[in-house]
Amino acid sequence: MRRNLNRPPTLAGAALAGAALLFALPSAAANLIDNGSFETGLGGWAATSPVEWTADGAAGPGSGSALLRGNPGVVGALALQQCASVSPGVDYDLRATTLLPHSPEAEGGVSFRVVWHSWPRCEGATLGLSPALDFPHVSPAVWTRRSLERLRAPSGAASASVQVVPWASGPEHAFSAFVDDVELSASSRFVTLTVPTAASVDGARGERFRTTLVLTNPANYTRRVDVALRCRADQPCSTAAVSLSFAPGETRVFADALLELFGKRNGAGALEVTYEATPGPIVASARAATVHEERPGNGMAIPVLPSSAARTRATFAGLSDGRAGDGGTRVNAGAYNPSPAAVFVFFTVHAENGEALDTVIQMVGPGAWAQVDDLFGLAGAGPVRPGSHVSFTSEAPVFPFLISIDNRSGDPTFLEPRESFQP
Hints:
Hypothetical Protein Tm1070, Chain: A, 2% helix
């Protein structure tokens, strides 16, 4: 399979200098779970009989993990649990990593949950439980990390039980699951939300793309929100950051966010919205639309994502339904890399029958955004057809995106990344 190494093109425009600095984020909080990495066997955990220790873990051979076997039933039965001390009114993050090997005879997964207790050592009254952190089977089977963030301990809570519950159907011997790196830690004081792509730029066929950002402060007092623009590695815009003050209950609409916030008449990148989360959330939404006078489009919603939404693999389906006719559809692809190191990302174009036609490789610099225009053309894959799909992988977690554009109107559609490699 031929691989196409693409270098990012240059964008016109420069970042607005002299803007305020972002909040300095604190280091990661300590894990309240004892032996969450299972490096020392099952110590610290209360385990039922179908659980055993294995030397293979998410970090490689010898790093250790818990192996859940058997068929605990469709509803699920408790397999592992551990008690941790917590403080009432404090927010906590729950994270875990699992590997669910494929089985042709059984379907199942693993759920993690937090049960709050009024007394130490998980005794006394039960004060409620968190939503479930679910891990269904993904294909191909790989170590997958997920999280639930800002779980608030209820008033009167003194401890929390972290519980691991497998669920499966099929014969008892057919199901197994590996669990590793379980973490319960106090949430960061600050939260960063990411808009993976935003633009104020002229399109390839006379359109003009413009991104709108809407921010709401639902709290009863004034709050500060920092918004930063992350550009291409060859056009760094580290000074493109502004601090905004929001009155109680205030909503502000930035119809052309790059122009109004950063003075960029022509440019593109990712947006990061950072705020102190202790008083509660800042509500953010984004959308993009063409502003062509003769052919205005309906536009598209763009997700505003938590840090935990960064990923290393995805599938993008529904690229075209064929209604664009002779005008056709073009697909732009890209990613925002939040990490401090450069990352290679891979977009593989697949035909309707699933055959991999070509892979376009892009290097995304640290804290940088990158986009490939007309992915199918660059891959030499011909026109975008109904049933075509794109699979994505990267060396480290990033925020990937695909945008399908109707060439007749210039109207864009944001394509959500899916978990499985199957369309």
